[in-house]
Write a structure and sequence with these properties.
Distance between the termini: 29 Å
Helix content: 40-55%
CATH architecture: Orthogonal Bundle
Oligomer: single chain
Strand order of the largest sheet: 1-2
CATH superfamily: lambda repressor-like DNA-binding domains
Shape: globular
Largest sheet: 2 strands, antiparallel
Order of helices and strands: EHHHHHE
Radius of gyration: 13 Å
Structural class: mainly alpha
Length: 87
Amino acid sequence: MSLIKTMPLTPPTILRVVLKKAREEKGLTQEELADIVCLRKWHIHEMEETETFITFYSMTIKVHAAKRIGAHLGLKESEFLEPVKKS
């Protein structure tokens, strides 16, 4: 049995507005949050403002970073990650 969790082929959608609102409610700037979760300010900006993954190199890495951010902000994954809908 593998202990490594793999991501689905299509990663979940990051609910950017939820992450941004949670950060603001905690009274943190993007730079302060970045320092806390060991990222850069531009990572937090990209997480909250765009659907791209330019500074993360892949969407998988961006989703893992979102999980770290969400955990620090006291959010459940289901609050800021929308699973892929199967057709």
